[in-house]
Amino acid sequence: MTGLLRRLATQAVEPARRERRTERCELCAEPLPAVHRHLLELAGRELRCACRACQVLFDHAAAGGGHYRLVPERRWRLSGFRLDEGAWARLRAPVRTVFLIHDSDTGDPVLYYPSPAGAVQAPADRSAWELLRRDNPVLRQLEPDVEALLVDSEAWMVPVDDCYALVGAIRAHWRGLTGGKDVREHITRFFTDLGGRSVTVPAAGSDRSPA
User: What is the rounded distance in angstroms from the CA atom of residue 6 to the CA atom of residue 31?
Assistant: First the structure.
């Protein structure tokens, strides 16, 4: 997802330039508001900015001829999420903040973690993923490719573009060997904002419909 990361990282680095530039839908060139949704182009794992009409056009899994998926808007804070040390070790996650995506092409989970250089992809143990899904049935509602399980001090189900916004902020504000105060403040701000936009759902299951 190099291109996707580059796009979001650039937005984090150059907010002033972004404000001066009129963004347009990348399918029909319609001018876009500052806040808009994205389509994921599956072949290249690229995010495409989308206007309202194009969002509606691709707002179900069968649309887009298998090329595009609309990134959902639901954000769930998962209460009672079960991830014991054994499962964490089997995931082989090298840092505490990671996100996992179910790749519909391979059928495998893919683990990423943010770094000063961007998103790093690491092998994800399928059996560990299945244990997580068994212990946290809400994960069976995770939409392949376009939603992620984000794990930090808490666990979340979020749109995939949220994860890359976090990666972009870390990349833009990391200083020195340890990151520095500025990047820690941006990470705290990200999760505070995420909490404000999320609903809390039990990891053991939910009857809620996707937002």
Answer: 22
Contact 8, 121 (CB under 8 A): no
Question: In three state form, how does the secondary structure of 129-164 look?
Answer: HHHHHHHCHHHHHCCCCCEEEEECCCEEEEEHHHHH
Q: What is the pLDDT of residues 169-180, one digit of tens each?
A: 999 898 888 888
160-173 vs 180-197: helix crossing angle, rounded to 10: 160
Handedness of CA 57, 63, 67, 68 (dihedral sign): positive
- The predicted model gives 85-114 an average pLDDT of 89
- Rounded to whole angstroms, the Cα distance separating 62 from 71 reads 14
Count of CA atoms in the C-beta half-sphere (13 A) of 91: 28
At 86, is the pLDDT very low, low, confident or very high (cuts 50, 70, 90)? confident
Question: How is residue 42 written in tokens?
Answer: 């599956």
Dist CA 208 CA 201 (whole Å): 8
The pTM score is 0.82
Residue with tokens 């179910």: 102
For residues 167 and 158, is the Cβ–Cβ distance under 8 A?
A: no
CA angle 121, 12, 47 (to 5 degrees): 55
Residue type, 69: R
**pLDDT of 135 strictly over 60:** yes
